[in-house]
Amino acid sequence: MKAELRLIVAKVAICALLLTAAAKPAKAEFITSGQVAWIGVAIGAIGAGIGIGIYYAVRHNRSLTGCAVSGASGLQLQNAGDQQSYALIGDVAGIKPGDRVRVSGKKEKGKPGASRQFLVEKLGKDYGACKVP
To answer: Considering the entire predicted model, what is its pTM?
Structure first.
C-alpha cells in the first residue's frame, strides 16, 4: 500500500515539474568575445594550479640541514628534521666538521642494516658553528 502511494506521489510530482518547466518561454543567449577570453583565462589558471599541485605532490625533498660531525666512516650529518644521521658522500670538500650546513643531493638506498647515506651534490648554505645542546 505504501509503495503504491509513493508511486502515485512521484508521478504527480513529475507531472507538475514538467508542466512548470514547459511553461517557460525559450530565449537564446549569446556568448560575447570577452566572456570567451575570461573562460580561456580560467581554464589556463586551473591547468596551472593543477600542474603546480602535482609538482609539489610528487617532488621529493632533496636537501638536508644539520650538524656535520666526523664519524667512523667519514663525515656525517646529524639531521635535526628527522633525527637521523647520514653518512655524507660525494662533494663534501667544502663541509667542515662542527658546522651547521644545508646540503643538496639525494638519499642513497643502501643495504638493510647499513648506515644511511646522502649523496651531496652541492653545499647549499653554511650556517656557522653548531649549537651545543
So the answer is: 0.51
